[in-house]
Amino acid sequence: MIRFLLLLILLLCKLNAYSTKAINAYAVSIYDENFKEENIQRKQKTTQDYNGIVYTKIYAFGQFFHDKPNVQIGTSKGTLIQSNAIVKNGLLIGQEMIFKHTTVTKGYLEVYVGKKLFDRSLYVK
Question: Which domains, ranges and CATH numbers included, belong to the chain?
């Protein structure tokens, strides 16, 4: 019985070690198809109209084992095209990611990790 309990505790600890521990994820900037950048921090609406191909830069902090951030603008889901590690004092603390959206018309920019919504503060017109 003791062996069974120890095996159960060990198994639960191993499964918990691989869970996602996302601390924060938010959008930093948005680009048009010519890579003209607009900083979107502390904004509620974009100054330019974005239609067609749009790129978004996302900062995500924490540990992501099986869940990667999902980004969408309205109904357009982004595909990850580039990811760079954010390192501080030799430790990996997060990632900088660039997503490509192909059919953007208008809508809110939303950043999810798993099913949890982290950022939805910008309306893309």
Answer: 20-124 (2.60.40)
pLDDT reported for residue 67: 76
Q: Which residue, chain included where needed, has tokens 């084992």? A: 65
List Cβ neighbours of 24 (8 Å cut-off, separation of 6 or more).
59, 60, 61, 62, 118
pTM: 0.79
Output 94 or 55, whichever has higher pLDDT.
Answer: 55
32, two tokens: 């048009």
* Residues whose CB is less than 8 angstroms from the CB of residue 61 and which lie 6 or more positions away in sequence, other chains included: 22, 23, 24, 25, 86, 93, 94
List the single range of 52-56, 70-74, 116-120 with lowest mean pLDDT.
116-120
Give how far Cα 93 sits from Cα of 21, 23, 61, Å. 11, 10, 6
Burial code (b: 16+ CB inside 10 Å, e: under 16) for 94-117 equals bbebbbbbeebeeeebbbbbeeee
Q: Are strands 21-31 and 79-88 parallel, antiparallel or unpaired?
A: unpaired
44, pLDDT greater than 70: yes
